[in-house]
């Protein structure tokens, strides 16, 4: 079983931060996100970390560029 050597902070896919320490059982999703080898006392096995990745969020839509005030330049 994978065990941590130190405390780590991990942010899940909903933006919630979780803190795990040496005495905690680290869920598989968090094990995949902890990439610093110095954080592990015993690193997780590679087979456990091969879960399918969550779907990526779509790119944010951009607003249309603003038009300058003043119209066409003719006076009516």
Assembly state here? single chain
Net shape: rod-shaped
Mean pLDDT: 82
Q: Could you give the count of β-strands?
A: 4
What's the helix count? 1
Tell me the Rg in angstroms: 24 Å
Helicity, as a percent range: under 10%
Quick synopsis:
The protein has 76 residues and is mostly beta strands. It has one helix at residues 28-33, and strands at residues 3-4, 8-11, 17-20, 40-42. 8% of the residues lie in helices and 17% in strands.
Written description of the protein model:
By secondary structure, the chain is mainly β. About 10% of the residues lie in helices and about 15% in strands. It has one helix and four strands; from the N terminus they run E-E-E-H-E. Strands 1-4 form a two-stranded antiparallel sheet. A two-stranded antiparallel ribbon has the order 2-3. The longest helix has 6 residues, at about 30-35.
Quick tags:
mainly beta; two-stranded antiparallel ribbon
How are the elements arranged and paired?
Elements: E1 3-4, E2 8-11, E3 17-20, H1 28-33, E4 40-42
Antiparallel strand pairs: 1-4, 2-3
